[in-house]
Design a protein that fits this description.
single chain; 314 residues; 2 domains; 10 helices; binds zinc ion
Length: 314
């Protein structure tokens, strides 16, 4: 049975009702996350029509830990970049850090050449805004501002491309035979913003077939894909024989929310156990809604696996 998934704003409103202290920030981002989701869907339809897809998955590359987009050129997506920037600009320009711009965002992104699109994509996926200094200067934007807005634009495009390339209901090539063993995304190479443990699956045609759930998946907040990962391994240090993940959580009303962190490298990843949820949350909204736990992680001097616009506290 297919379980329905909440929209971003539904998940954010639910979290805000439980944690009023987060309401202001969650409300501020709800329209942007909803707009990004709708845009990704539209871009997927446009790309399908234009017969543009991601490069084909090769098991040999995946098993070596090479992400699908690593060192790959994509066709010129100027039209799609322009559409993404134009759609998201009104929402992005409401973020205080982005409200005082010399160049309108839509214009800056519409002017990117194919090579510049690739530089932006790589800077976003490897989380290195410093790589954007020259490009940002050309458009009279601060590199951090360019990176923040660029993250939403690139993310919408990669989500559109992924949906145009893979059937949502089918097993992904990287999960087949556990081909992909890495803690970073098999498609775009970004580190995950969230881990989730799945619900039990009951096969109604065969009451003897009952899978207990709890398998771990990592979720990429950039391209929107997820992949299987070993439950007790650290996504940053790699797979280890010994148990090495520590768990940080609230005492009450956890709703399956926790922070997994690694005592060796101090990287952390917010985690949600879907066995404790009736409705499945929107994963981008859920990642943003765990700020209360991220603040505790930050106080413990832990570092997010993937720095996001909301968890860069210092
Ligand atoms: Zn990704
Ligand atoms: Zn580690």
């Amino acid at each position: 049975m297919e379980v329905s998934r909440q929209s971003a704003s539904e998940t954010l409103h639910e979290i805000a009702s439980l944690r009023p202290a987060l309401k202001t920030i969650l409300d501020a981002f709800a329209p942007l996350l909803d707009a990004q989701e709708a845009l990704a869907q539209e871009l997927a339809a446009d790309l399908t029509k234009a017969q543009i897809q991601l490069p084909a998955c090769q098991a040999s590359r995946l098993s070596l830990g090479i992400s699908l987009l690593s060192d790959q050129d994509l066709p010129d997506l100027a039209t799609q970049y322009a559409k993404a920037a134009k759609t998201l600009a009104p929402y992005l320009e409401k973020i205080p850090a982005l409200s005082q711009l010399h160049t309108p965002l839509a214009q800056a992104f519409a002017e990117l050449t194919c090579a510049e699109q690739k530089s932006l994509r790589e800077a976003v996926c490897t989380c290195q805004p410093g790589l954007l200094e020259d490009l940002a200067k050309k458009h009279e934007l601060d590199p951090l501002v360019f990176n923040l807005a660029g993250t939403f634009v690139v993310s919408s495009l990669l989500r559109g491309l992924s949906r145009a390339s893979f059937e949502p209901s089918q097993e992904k090539p990287w999960d087949t035979n556990n081909t992909w063993q890495q803690g970073y995304c098999p498609v775009c190479g970004s580190y995950p913003v969230l881990a989730w443990l799945d619900k039990p699956v009951i096969d109604e045609r065969n009451t003897y077939l009952h899978e207990g759930g709890g398998r771990k998946h990592l979720y990429c907040g950039i391209c929107g894909n997820d992949w299987h990962f070993l439950r007790l391994a650290c996504p940053a240090c790699g797979v280890s024989e010994s148990r090495q993940i520590e768990i940080l959580t609230e005492e009450t009303n956890t709703r399956g929310e926790a922070i997994d962190w690694c005592p060796k490298c101090k990287a952390y990843c917010p985690t949600v156990d879907m066995r404790e949820r009736i409705q499945l949350p929107n994963l981008d909204a859920q990642a943003l809604g765990m700020l209360h736990l991220e603040l505790i992680a930050w106080e413990k001097k832990l570092k997010p696996l993937r720095a996001s616009f909301w968890n860069t506290f210092a």
